Amino acid sequence: MTTTAPHIDRPRTTAEGRTALRPRRSVPWGKIAAWAVMVIFLLITLFPFYWMLRTALSSNNALATDPASLLPVGLNTGGFERVFGLQDVETAISQGGSGASINFWRYLLNSVIVATTVTIIQTFSCAMAAYAFSRLRWRGRDTVFLIFLGSLMIPQIFTLLPNFILIKNLGLVDTLLGIMLPTLFISSFAIFFLRQFFNNISREVEEAALIDGASKARVFFTLILPMASAPLATLALLTYMTAWNEYFWSLMVSYTDQSRVLTVALGVFRAQAPGTGPDWSGLMAATLVAAAPMLLLFALFAKKIVNSIGFSGIK
Amino acid sequence: MTSQNHPDSALSRRPLPTRPGLSRRRLLQGSAALAAGAAGAGALAACGADSSAPSGATQIDYWLWDANQLPAYSAAIDLFMEQNPDIVVRITQMGWDDYWTKLTASFVAEAGPDAFTDHLARFPEFVNLGVIAPLDGLAALEDVAAEQFQDGLQELWSDQSGTRYGIPKDYDTIAVLYDQNMLAEEGLAPEDLENLDWNPEDGGSFERMLARLTVDTNGVRGDEEGFDPTSIARYGLGADAGTDYTGQTSWSPFALSTGWTFTDEPTWGTRFNYDDERFAATMDWYFGLVDKGFFPPFGTFGDSSPTQSQLQSGSAALVTVGSWMISTFANMEGMELGIAPLPTGPAGTPVSMFNGLGDSISAQSTHKEEAARLIAFLASDEAQQVIGERAPFFPATDVGTEAAIEAYSARGLDVTPFTDRVARGETGLYPLVENSASIASIMQAAFDQCWMRQIDGADFASYNDRVNALFE
């Protein structure tokens, strides 16, 4: 009890100054340490991005003269110029670049078309399928769902050749539709993901709508979809990223610029022949540029993602 | 929350005021419309292409992997299309690894190219699988004689019975590359690297040069007292990240210059000679350089530190490099490229591996005649001149090679240490055999272990038995 007395007295005796009102605090070491750790982690996380930028702004032919330099070696924008196809082939080769013409905007457009179309259609069709699996009663539903789940276990490499032969027979080789088709409508993961969410949506709400005369379709469009907007956004983002990053299938189907997507185009930047050094500055510049849309998406939808992870829905 | 008391199952049993037929139809209609829309969007996107052949012309696909070769071949193929308006060539280029994966998968799916750049390591298996077409009998190629290429090149592209499966495009040899500034700082002249010799016993003047150029982290040279072979600032000889069973740019110049050959026959051998004493001695010497500190231990340099980076960063003084890398080395800043011949071996001359790429035609192609016209044109003097002038490599014919030598010379580069080997017949052929993939996987372990200093040259004999068993 004796120790509390001075605390009670202090405001009364030193009322003239605001600062004196507060108890004298010692240096907040804990806070400083926490900040320091956070800053260190931040730096560690951001350093690879900085290193990419540093390499992108370096001269390819000078990089090895000072490999440990924190600043760009032989500062120039040649890497970015090659990415955007602003360099002629001779200059590009003389700077350690690729002799392939780089039709960057075309590849970007192709990637955007593929990722956007796949995201919109796949998310929508998977939402319908998940609704069917979750809320509609039909014979063999659970069996079909199990088969769907089982397909998650099949490695992609098993389906590669049959898919490719099918696409070839459909005459869709070297078209964007050929790249999109295998993942355009169905993703077992997406169906599973959404079904789990739909299962948690209150049946009472749905029931009320049905009693009021709404059709199942209307329930789906006006009730279920809006209520599932957070997981749908998350799923759409994941789908977009997967479609954006898809490499091997795109490589198989794409023959020319007309269907070449960014990931495949980045492959062109990599070592062309065994023993040939990669065009590091071009590769890093291209990777940064290719990552930009993903970063933008994250910046725009970060809140949605966080929310959807912690969402509770209407129980 | 009025239905709190009803279990979920009750809901399904209860008749509901729904219109299932209508809603299902609507859903189906909606998804069909979406599918059609997507197909339309895809087709529209595809329509933006500009590579479709004009009416009446035949479109053929030509694939290659090397972007550095692309400009030269694009120029030649443009010329071909000018002269052959009935053919449109669609060129596809992709990186080395992707190339073979896609090529193999495309053969399975029967969606491969009509003509493509082929590699000696892959071609025997393609012949076995029957996926590449024999070139004899194709009218356009009848006039393409073996004599128009450098000696031995056409043999590399023919099977045991002499049937051609590829038309040579280019060739490559090995030489020693260095930085002239570094050499000058060491008080040496380019001539000091001209006439070096090598032997597996004491390494000859080449090893003495490596010792002279090796510097430890205390600044002591490899041939001076107090040299610490475990802490090296600059290795005398640079290294690729890995050495494979052909050792093309690493150990093969040394082994071949002892008179050793890969197999019992110049091409299509069925017995490997990894159990030969000369080979064993070469391995003991070559990888023994690690113990002496003149050569980097296994794993010192990874794929991201190829020999050009080692030379440029001053981590290595000399590197043995293939001719396809000349331009890359010549473009590097902060150094002045010097090219020296390989050291003379016990056989009395330097010996370089002789390898080359060729053009093959897919067995599935429905346009073999058109593809044959293309690759015959690429082998013509007219095309070889065009290619040679732009080439960062040596085209297969004399005309192309001369054009390339002149083009390099105009840039101040004397590339004759590469071309002399062919001109003087000082070459050993690339081991053209069947089972190359299996051989590679068996021998990789042996070379890695020898480099790690876990096995000796004599231990290669047991691996050789396993390799030879593949041919029984």
Automatic annotation (TrEMBL), chain B:
Pfam families: SBP_bac_8 (PF13416)
Name of the protein in its database record: Sugar ABC transporter substrate-binding protein
UniProt keyword Hydrolase present: no
Keywords: Signal, Transport
Compartments, record wording: Cell envelope
Region of interest (Disordered), residue spans: 1-22
Coiled coil: none
Organism name: Brachybacterium saurashtrense
SUPFAM superfamilies given in the database record: Periplasmic binding protein-like II
A GO CC annotation given for this chain: cell envelope
CDD domains, A to Z: PBP2_TMBP_like
Superkingdom to which the source organism belongs: Bacteria
Major subcellular site: other
UniProt similarity note: Belongs to the bacterial solute-binding protein 1 family.
